[in-house]
Amino acid sequence: MAPSTSLGKITLPRQQRRLLQPLNSPKHKRATAAPPAGLLQELLGDAHPPKPRRASDETLAVHAGEKLGKGADEAATDSIATPIVSGTTHWFKSSEDLIAFKEGRRHSHEYGRYSNPTVKVLQDKISALERAEATLVTSSGMNAIVATLLALVPPGGHVVTTTDCYSEARAFIRDRLSKMGIRSTFIDLDDMESLKAVLDQNNVTLFYADSPTNPLLKCVDIRLVAELCHQKGALVCIDSTLASPINQKPLTLGADIVLHSATKYMAGHHDVIAGCISGSEALISEIRAWHHDLGGAISPNAAYMIIRGLKTMALRVEAHNRTALQIARLLECHPKIERVHYPGLESNPWHQVAKSQMTGYGGVVSFEVKSDLWGTMRFVDALEIPLIATSLGGCESLVQQPAVMSFWGKSDEEKAKNGIKDNLVRFSFGIEKFEDLRDDVLQALEKI
Ligand SMILES: *Cc1c(COP(=O)(O)O)cnc(C)c1O
Question: Is the pTM here over 0.85, yes or no?
Fold first, then answer.
C-alpha cells in the first residue's frame, strides 16, 4: 500500500495514534489534572470526577505547543507569552556538546533556516489542531505548496489535481512541474469516475486538491478520494485554507497531507504571510529536507504573530461561520440575487459532502447579483464596511468581484473556463457584527 516513491515506509494518518487525544498525553498533564474540589463542584456536576476526554480545539489553540516557558527548552522562561527567539544561530558549550548534538543525544536548533524555538511552538500548536504527527511552517502558502510538490513527486511522477485548485498552484503544476518530467492530469473535483480511470491507467504519485475551493466553494469528498487513491498507492494532499483547522481536519478523514495558507484564518489579521504543512513525521521530514534547500523559513516574529492569532482562531472562525451562513441564507431569498455559492446552504450541490466532513463552512460566500459587470461594480462600490481587496480569513470583511480583481482584461472565454461570471461577487466575511454587515449588504443591493 505504501507508494513506491523514494519516501520509504509511509505512516498514514489513520495510524497516527498519539495525537488523537492530545490532552491525555503526558505533554498536557497539567490540563488533565483533577479540578479543585469545593467551589467548582457545583459547576462541574457530572464532570467530576473527570473522565478522560479529548481536548477541544478552543483549548488546544490557546495552550498546545507552548512549552518554552516550562523549562523544556533552551529558551526557558516563565513568561506566559511565548518568547520571540530572534537569534539565527545557536551556540554549543563545547566540542563535546556539539558532538552530542551531531549524534542526536542532545537537542538544539543549530541554525535558523532549519529550525527555531518560536517556530517550533507554532508547529506543535498546529499539529495538535490538525491531529498531525508533525508540521512544517513555511514563509508563505505558496512555499508550502511548492515544497510539498517538489518533495513528494519525483521526476517521472504523476500529479492528479482539480480544475478548481488555487490558481497559482494550478499554474505551477501545469507549467513548471511539466518541465521537470512530472506529468499532471486535471479532473473535475466531483468526477470520481475520471479519478478512478486516471488511477487505473497511471502510476499516480499524488492527488492534490483544495476543499472548499476558491471562489466557488466546491468541496472534495476527502474520505472517498483517500480511499480510491490509497487503493492505488497514491498520496492525498488537501489545501484546507478555506476551511481552517477549526472547520475541517483532512488527516482524520484519510488525507496524508494537509496544507494551509496560514496568511488567512490561522494568522487571521491580514498582517502576516505564512504557510504550513501537516502529516506523518515520515512525510513531513521528506518535505522538511526540501524546504531546507528552498530556504523558505518563516521569521520568528511572523511565527509569533501566528501563535497569537491562533489563540483566538476558534472564536473568530465561529463568528465567520455564523455570519456567512446567515447572510448566505438571506441572499438566497433576495430578489436581486441570482445564485449563492456556499456549502452551508442545504440547496448547495456540495452540502452533503461538506456536512459529512466539516463542522462549519467558513466565512467566504460567493454570489451572483442580478446585473451585469457594471451593475455589480455599483453594488461593490456602495458597500461601506467591507474593503475591496483580495485575500480572506481576517477580522475585516473583504469583498471583490473576480471579473475585475483577477480577470480584468481577460477574454470571456478565459473567464468561462474558470467559471467566473461578470456578476460574481466574493465576500470574505470578517468578525464585525452580523446586523451591521447585513444592513450594509442590503443597502448596497438597492444601488445596483
Ligand atoms: C492564499 C492562498 C494560497 C497561497 O497562500 P500565500 O500565503 O498567499 O502564499 C494557497 N491556497 C489558497 C486556497 C489560498 O487561499
Answer: yes
Tens-level pLDDT at each residue, the chain (448 residues): 334 333 333 333 333 333 333 433 333 333 334 444 565 566 655 666 656 667 899 999 998 988 655 555 555 678 889 999 999 999 999 999 999 999 999 988 999 999 999 999 999 999 999 999 999 999 999 999 999 999 999 999 999 999 999 999 999 999 999 999 999 999 999 899 999 999 999 999 999 999 999 999 999 999 999 999 999 999 999 999 999 999 999 999 999 999 999 999 999 999 999 999 999 999 999 999 999 999 999 999 999 999 999 999 999 999 999 999 999 999 999 999 999 999 999 999 999 999 999 999 999 999 999 999 999 999 999 999 999 999 999 999 999 999 999 999 999 999 998 889 999 999 999 999 999 999 999 999 999 9
Q: Superfamily assignment of 314-445 in CATH? A: Aspartate Aminotransferase, domain 1 (3.90.1150.10)
Distance CA 207, CA 229 (A): 7
Question: Domain extents for the chain?
Answer: 56-311, 314-445
Instruction: Give residue ranges with CB within 6 A of ligand 1.
Output: 140-142, 166, 210, 214, 239, 241-242, 261, 263-264, 273, 275
Distance CA 279, CA 193 (A): 27
**Contact at 8 Å (CB) between 395 and 363?**
no
Class of the CATH-defined domain 56-311: alpha beta
Residue 166 among the catalytic residues: yes
| Contact (Cβ atoms closer than 8 angstroms) between residue 406 and residue 381 | no
113 as an active site residue: the answer is yes
* CA angle, 146 then 148 then 154, to 5°: 95
Among candidates 268, 388, 367, which has minimal Cα distance to 324? 367
Q: Do domains 56-311 and 314-445 have the same CATH topology?
A: no
Tell me the CA–centroid distance for residue 261 and ligand 1, in Å: 4
